Automatic annotation (TrEMBL):
It comes from Bradyrhizobium forestalis. Residues 26-45 bind DNA. This is TetR family transcriptional regulator. Pfam families: TetR_N. The keyword Ribosomal protein does not apply.
Length: 198
């Protein structure tokens, strides 16, 4: 029962935050959307900020799961780059409300309470990517670089298109740029002689 109330409140929080933003959102509006009593809300969450932090972690977990699913079964370098970029773009477009919350609405000042949990989730994502990447670096299929640089070269350019899409500045589906983004990522992340063998 408590899990259902929590899930309802998180879903309602996502809807309300997406519609009016964090600052304008009220506990009353979230409760109304979730059809939850005041007591139910405060039994699960101590405040709107606490709900926002829990929602951030939940959305981040969904995003990471979608990204890591792209690496199963384990792909070669070219397939992995392709799948990871497409997974990011697909998640942003098909889970637009969650993506807006993760990349546009969430704020660091109210995320302090979940910072350690966020770091742990980010570390699990990094470990999953590194399990795929490290053997490919060792075999010369991927260029050696830090994990952070690898992810920035892989997802960074796609994220520029995604942020414009999520903010409404550009209504074009960012997936139409997938092939170009993948080609650019291959040039940034793989040795030239490996790309030319294709």
């Amino acid at each position: 029962m408590a899990t259902s109330v929590r899930d309802d409140l998180l879903a309602a929080g996502l809807m309300v935050f997406d519609r009016v933003g964090f600052e304008a959102a009220t506990v009353a509006a979230i409760r109304t959307r979730a059809r939850a009593s005041n007591g139910s809300f405060f039994h699960v969450f101590g405040s709107k900020k606490e709900l926002a932090g829990a929602l951030f972690l939940e959305v981040l977990r969904h995003y990471h799961a979608a990204v890591l699913a792209a690496l199963d079964p384990v792909p070669d370098a070219e397939q992995g780059i392709d799948r990871l970029i497409r997974a990011h773009l697909d998640w942003v477009v098909t889970r637009r409300r969650e993506a807006r919350y993760l990349f546009e609405i969430s704020r660091s000042e109210w995320g302090e309470d979940v910072r350690d949990a966020q770091r742990a989730q980010n570390a699990r994502l990094a470990e999953g990517i590194e399990r795929w990447r490290a053997p490919l670096v060792a075999s010369g299929e991927l260029l050696p670089m830090t994990p952070a640089m690898f992810v920035s070269q892989l997802i960074g350019p796609a994220q520029i298109f995604c942020r414009a899409f999520l903010s409404g500045r550009d209504r074009t589906d960012p997936r139409i740029e997938a092939d170009t983004l993948i080609a650019c990522a291959n040039r940034a992340l793989r040795p030239c002689d490996r790309i030319n063998k294709q």
